[in-house]
Specification:
Helix content: 55-70%
Distance between the termini: 113 Å
Shape: elongated
Structural class: alpha+beta
Order of helices and strands: HHHHHHEEEEEEEEEEEE
Number of helices: 6
Strand content: 5-15%
Oligomer: single chain
Radius of gyration: 37 Å
Length: 395
């Protein structure tokens, strides 16, 4: 009798233990949000990015103030303004790189989130079926199974089986919780990345506005000879000397290439150097100067285009000049062989260095308004046999 009673106590204790464990399997707990401290710090930095936009406005205002002091020195005024334009274009390029990375991050995170949501939905459906099954079966089924054991060994085997089922259910529930936490984390990260993208785009737009402001300032100042920065005779002389110096450099390079008997030969024709625009704003030859100080004999054609538009190599060749002067701004010269050279002026950015071999269609720079210029455009020139010729013969 005593043994039978002890057995019942043991069985009862074990049944209670199993019941508690099995009940806890489906206990509902609030899932923890696993957004990392690093992610929260990134979210708060979004405000810092917005503050940068306000600083940019102040920065451009200060730049304009500094330029006023230089209006009586045209050469220095243009150089300083061009340096500011170059810096802004470099910043835009960095922002563009960041935008590409950010868009890729968003795409990857979105794929991960979609996959996590699918997994969560599948796991949730499976767990609902399991809960429904246990509910319909009832806890008493476990009691009956244990109490119907034929002996202690059979009882312990059944008990281990019930325990394994309970553990399986707990593990499945934990996996579901972990995946829900992952969905929360990815949702928060996606939100942050989208906000960051908007901030970067706002910053990009502001930099572009800053460039436009500086170009307009420059255009307004150098297009009217009656204004405070009107070119004096000494300044005109400076400009003429600058252009003469540039022509001498070009001629020396051409002469050096002739002397080394280069075997380079121009094969085929030229392609249009500015794919985004075919609008010619000034043709080759004599013209009315668009601004005081600019040459009345135009040694190329001007192609009106937006700042930052691609400028490409008209044909295969070697970059023999990649430089800056205050008349032409950022400019590039390419040797195509057969004593034919092309020149690209007023660039906002030079993308190739001297000595680099380029293929027809390679991007060599970006359209700008550096040097003596009244607005964003590409000056495209062609030299043949040591003289400038009309580029439209070739394109």
């Amino acid at each position: 009798m005593k043994k039978r009673f002890s057995k019942k106590i043991i069985i009862s204790f074990l049944l209670i233990f199993v019941f508690i464990n099995n009940t806890n399997t489906f206990a509902t707990n609030e899932s923890e949000t696993l957004v990392s401290e690093e992610e929260q710090a990134q979210l708060s930095s979004s405000q810092e990015e917005k503050d940068k936009i306000l600083k940019e406005k102040k920065k451009i205002q200060n730049t304009l103030k500094d330029l006023k002091a230089l209006k009586n020195d045209t050469e220095e005024y243009i150089k300083v303004l061009d340096n500011n334009l170059n810096a802004l274009n470099a910043e835009i390029e960095l922002i563009n790189d960041s935008l590409i990375v950010k868009e890729q991050d968003i795409e990857i995170t979105q794929v991960q989130l979609n996959e996590a949501i699918k997994t969560e939905n599948r796991q949730s459906a499976d767990m609902k079926k399991r809960i429904q099954y246990v509910y319909e079966l009832g806890e008493m089924s476990y009691f009956k199974m244990l109490l119907s054991a034929s002996d202690v060994s059979d009882y312990l085997s059944r008990f281990d089986y019930v325990k394994e089922i309970s553990k399986y259910d707990k593990d499945k529930l934990q996996v579901l919780k972990d995946n829900r936490a992952l969905v929360e984390y990815l949702s928060a990260r996606l939100l942050f990345e989208k906000e960051s993208l908007l901030v970067l785009k706002s910053e990009q737009d502001l930099k572009k506005e800053s460039i436009e402001t500086l170009i307009n300032e420059k255009t307004n100042e150098i297009s009217d000879a009656e204004e405070t920065i009107a070119l004096s005779e000494s300044e005109l002389k400076k400009l003429e000397e600058e252009e003469k110096k540039q022509d001498e450099i070009i001629k020396k390079i051409e002469q050096a290439i002739r002397q080394r008997n280069s075997s380079r030969v121009l094969v085929g024709g030229f392609v249009w150097p500015c794919p985004s625009s075919t609008r010619i704003t000034s043709t080759f030859g004599y013209r009315t100067s668009p601004t005081k100080g600019a040459s009345t004999y135009h040694k190329g054609i001007d192609i009106g285009a937006q700042t930052g538009s691609n400028v490409i190599a008209a044909a295969d060749g070697e970059v023999v000049i990649s430089s800056y002067n205050y008349s032409s701004g950022n400019y590039i010269m390419i040797d195509h062989g057969s004593d034919i050279f092309t020149i690209y002026m007023h660039l906002s950015k030079k993308s190739v260095a001297e000595g680099v071999e380029v293929k027809q269609g390679d991007v060599i720079g970006l359209v700008g308004s550096t040097g003596i210029s009244t607005g964003p455009h590409l000056h495209f020139g062609v030299r043949r046999g040591g003289e400038y010729v009309d580029p439209q013969i070739f394109v």
